[in-house]
Amino acid sequence: MTYQIELDRVEKHYGRFHALKEISLAIPKGQFVALVGPSGCGKSTLLRSIAGLERITSGTLRIAGEPVNDLPPRKRDLAMVFQSYALYPHMSVRDNLTYALRLKGVSRAERARRAEEVAAVIGLETLLDRRPRELSGGQRQRVAMGRAIIRQPRAFLFDEPLSNLDAALRVRMRKEVRALHDRIGATSVYVTHDQIEAMTMADHVVVLQAGRIEQQGTPMALYDRPANRFVAGFIGSPAMNFMPGVIAGDGRAVRLALPGNPVLETAIAGTPGLEVEVGIRPEHMVLGPLDAPHAVPLVVSAVETTGAASYLFTEGEPELIVTTEGTAAIRADDTIGVSIDPARVHLFEPETGASLRSAKL
Amino acid sequence: MSGAVTNRVLLAVALALAAVYLFPLYWMYVTSLKTQSSIFAVPPEFLPGAPQWDNYATIWEVANIPRYIGNSLVIASGVTLITALIGSGCAYVLARYRNGWIDAALFAVLMLQVLPPSLMVTPIFVGFASVGLLEYPRFATILAFSAKTMPFFVILCRAAFMTVPRELEEAALVDGNSRVGAFFMIVLPLARNGLLISALLVFMNGFGEYVYSASIIADNRLQPASIGMTNFLQPNVVNWNAIMAFAATYVTPILAAFVLLQRQIVNGLTAGALK
Ligand SMILES: Nc1ncnc2c1ncn2[C@@H]1O[C@H](COP(=O)(O)OP(=O)(O)OP(=O)(O)O)[C@@H](O)[C@H]1O
Ligand SMILES: [Mg+2]
User: Fold this and answer.
1) What digits encode the pLDDT tens for the residues A276-300?
2) Rounded to whole angstroms, how far apart are CA atoms A361 and B5?
3) pTM for the complete prediction?
4) Domain spanning A238-357 has what CATH number?
5) Residue B239: Cβ within 10 Å count
6) CATH 2.60.40.10: does it fit domain B64-270?
7) Which of the ligands is closest to the CA of residue A36?
8) How far apart are CA B188 and CA A5, in angstroms?
9) Could you tell me the distance, in angstroms and rounded to a whole number, from the CA of residue B251 to the centre of ligand 2?
């Protein structure tokens, strides 16, 4: 199978600094791939390397099966949407949209037709003659999108295109960008530091840290089966709770360092006596009566509520977060009973951070 | 309230200083319109009773003003052309790349700016003589003076290029342009104001150039107005009105350009600093 974009052990050095480490990634045609990771992990570097704005130090980059390591950006036939939008300030919206077509030598009439067409898609028909500085942030963002789709490129590259918009618009554009991707049957690589954006938009999520791919897979695979502690903590909101624990019984149970030292029967096998790091998502810690079997008594230190959900912060080390639906009638200093679904428990090796489940697989 | 007083005092100081600076200019214009006798009147006349516009007509012919100004224009244009062509490329590179070599180059450029022409002129003269460049004295002057204006131009231009975000250029590259194409279609139009102003300043510098012309151009017919004025000065030591008319004819175009473009010049100079 030829992939639309394929990276094979790609490395990038900036002088001594090792920015991308052994990146292998295969993106089939039509897929929406999100690159996520904390600031400085190399997301933009990876995207810019695909675009040809950075030269990769080693490895192979193929577009539609053809190696493009030595091709300049203009010969790669990719479109890119920049975080700052990078609209040409001295050109009208129309000229911004059709700039690439002009470079390709498309006739004036054809350019005008395509500009109208794309303007209709992105809802900017009335603004074609304005300059970028006469547009709002959201409108500029649309022009930047329009400039990419008018070209019908082999793939779209997005570098945090929504990060300059306000929260409400960002949520709306999330759906619009994805809908646009589906409508035109595009292949997209989307960089974001916002894991919610990645989870909601993408077919395939790639988690980067310090220039290395920590894990890649479908959003649900990353959520349900994080390969290591980093991915577990990065994906999901609020972040996963971590606490120390010890493998107990015949190796299929874990004793948590929580009040009452509860022992959970897990599906994961380990060596009895092994110290592990236990991860439980806040939404998998269920509030229940204090006297229920296996209920862990925890003292609440603070409550945050969004209306739809409440986050209970607990006292003690480590601080845990418990999510409950709606507004809970719970205050600080109340004692709550929490039961934990053993099937939702993740175990990690304390040193390497690797998931015990993945070690077994 | 004390702020208002301070402001007024500062304004007064500024006006006084401006008066000190501008008085010679004023005196030049006034003197150029006086008669021979009223120049030495005591007390001095601050406004000429009967302006002698003839002074201008006379010196226009007598002092060969068209020829001198023509030569000044040739030198100024040549200097501007060479400086702008070579300097803008250099400034662009210095604006776009960041590493130790670039820092060293910038430092060298700033150092060059410090060297005074009077120091440089002798080695340049000797060097030009040995390669036969003195056969073409105006061209030799243009070359020598371009070397002097280059650092100044490069520093200003670099600031202009740095105001153009790199991402715009990258967007153009991804959109299908070559590096050269992106430079001409995106960077150049956006840095245009800064470049034009820098070029204009270089042109004005070239128009007033004295030191290199004085040593390199021996032939009277090829000398620029700055030399022409000293030539004219020596046999006419007492004809102050004629000399001042010459000076006024020479500097008025420069002053006019400055006044007309004053706002753009200031913008061009501070564009890099404010962003
Ligand atoms: N031109 C460069 N020279 C040297 N180091 C660089 C260069 N560009 C980026 N880096 C380094 O490479 C690393 C990755 O940078 P990159 O811009 O890809 O991060 P990012 O994941 O996009 O972060 P952010 O979310 O903040 O945009 C950073 O540590 C950065 O300092
Ligand atoms: Mg980035």
Assistant:
1) 999 999 999 988 888 877 788 999 9
2) 82
3) 0.83
4) 2.40.50.140
5) 19
6) no
7) 1
8) 34
9) 53
